[in-house]
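step=encode ok
step=design start
structure_in=
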């Protein structure tokens, strides 16, 4: 299993979640985050915005679905062709175990 954390523009989060649902991946956690990327924030006139609002989408999927899910997120979250600074980042990491809090049992991820 792997966890994908996608940091995307707030206006793109709904589109990405819809695309993931339509692709067969309904289980997504969404949270609002603030940060900056390589561009170190944003200058508007004389005002420097150091922390920009983004949305973080997290999902755990089987390893073999990684390339497909990444392509769905990349195609949907990109703001243009080829995209612009601030479109976001995607982080992929292994998941060793998953547990359900209500039952105290270890989950076994089932392929959708």
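sequence_out=
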């Amino acid at each position: 299993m792997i966890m994908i954390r996608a940091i995307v523009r707030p206006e793109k989060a709904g589109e990405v979640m819809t695309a993931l649902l339509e692709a067969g991946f309904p289980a997504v956690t969404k949270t609002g985050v603030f940060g900056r990327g390589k561009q170190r924030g944003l200058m508007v006139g004389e005002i420097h915005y150091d922390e920009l609002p983004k949305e973080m989408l997290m999902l755990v999927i089987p390893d073999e679905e990684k390339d497909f899910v990444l392509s769905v997120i990349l195609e949907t979250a990109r703001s243009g062709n080829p995209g612009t600074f601030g479109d976001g980042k995607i982080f992929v990491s292994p998941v060793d175990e998953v547990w359900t809090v209500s039952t105290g049992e270890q989950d076994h991820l089932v392929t959708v």
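step=design ok
step=annotate ok -> Helices lie at 10-22, 66-77.
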